[in-house]
Design goal:
Layout lengths: L1 H14 L5 H4 L5 H22 L1 H4 L4 H29 L2 H7 L2 H12 L1 H4 L4 H28 L5 H31 L5 H29 L12 H29 L2 H6 L2 H15 L5 H18 L14
């Protein structure tokens, strides 16, 4: 239990970095950020795939198709929505919407996976969900107040950012549940190899997307400087760092956690990503969070700790032999 929690914490710390890139690269289109991030991830995965080639040969065509699906929705589409949301609504609002993932995934997986993992009793799960939801609400209240106080705020732009963040939530509600399905069904496979396989599956998609964006940029006469934009060193450095830490190593840690913990609890542990992303956002702002924000973060952590004390219970059989 605690080993799985440690891996989930490590994944959250690294995944929080993905919220930083759109803030540090505001001139870069979200599509380019998504394609470049996963192009870097795929290139990093190539030498890892060579070292792990024996295990990768064991994957069937169905395994590679599953890796492609996970990569398309959980990687490219998710980050496209998230980066676009951050660029339109700023860091905190999308972070708070993404912060609802622990609640959304916990509810969905408890409904779907009770027979496999055992069901966390709703009455015992409810306090942790209430704590997490309250924490997210407190932090979100502060950000909404700041938005209302800004006379120059573009409400339509913020609303679009919120909708894009909801799209990211949909992608990442589907991803961890589907990813856990494969890992549980292949307990003999290495989570490290599965993370590398997803990187390899992402590479051709990201490369095609990057080239297609470049061609579109040229054909439509856009002023954006391809291939690396106005700050190439920062762009390349951030993409490589996120590709290695957030995409590959973060996925590896998440896979390790997914093999050790029930999906319902793993879903709640995504709260570590929210806390990390908020911390990084306030560092970039150059000021500390409001007391209400700190109280919200404390509630988030308390909700996670509470959830770890709840144990799944086998579901009662629908019928019994007499």
């Amino acid at each position: 239990m605690w080993t799985g929690t440690f891996f989930a914490l490590a994944a959250g710390l690294m995944w929080g970095l993905v919220f930083v890139a759109p803030l540090l690269l505001p001139q870069y289109p979200a599509a380019l950020l998504s394609f470049a991030r996963y192009l870097a991830f795929g290139l990093i995965a190539l030498p890892l795939a060579w070292l792990d080639r024996r295990r990768l040969r064991e994957f069937t065509r169905g395994d590679w198709i599953e890796a492609l699906k996970l990569s398309t929705i959980g990687n490219l589409l998710y980050y496209l929505c998230l980066a676009a949301a951050i660029q339109r609504a700023g860091g905190p609002l999308p972070t708070m919407i993404i912060g609802t993932l622990p609640v959304v995934i916990a509810i969905c997986s408890n409904l779907r996976d009770g027979a496999r993992d055992g069901q966390l009793p709703w009455l015992r799960l409810a306090p942790s969900l209430v704590l997490i939801g309250s924490g997210i609400g407190l932090v979100n209240h502060v950000e909404i107040g700041a938005l209302r106080a800004d006379a120059n705020a573009d409400v339509g732009r913020y609303a679009l950012g919120a909708l894009l963040a909801i799209g990211a939530v949909v992608c990442w509600t589907w991803y961890p549940m589907r990813n856990a399905d494969w890992l549980r069904a292949h307990a003999d496979r290495s989570p490290r190899t599965w993370a590398t396989a997803q990187g390899i599956a992402t590479l051709p998609l990201a490369a095609f997307g990057f080239v297609a964006f470049w061609l579109w940029n040229v054909s439509t006469g856009q002023v954006f400087e391809m291939p690396f934009g106005p700050t190439p060193q920062r762009f390349i450095g951030l993409m490589l760092a996120i590709g290695l830490l957030a995409s590959w190593l973060g996925t590896l840690c998440w896979n390790e956690a997914s093999q050790r913990l029930p999906t319902t609890l793993v879903g709640q542990l995504i709260v570590f990503e929210t806390v990390s992303a908020l911390s990084y956002a306030f560092v970039l702002r150059g000021r500390g969070p409001e007391p209400e924000t700190l109280a919200g973060v404390a509630l988030l952590i308390a909700g996670v700790v509470w959830a770890l004390r709840v144990r799944p219970e086998p579901m009662a059989a629908e019928g019994h032999a007499t």
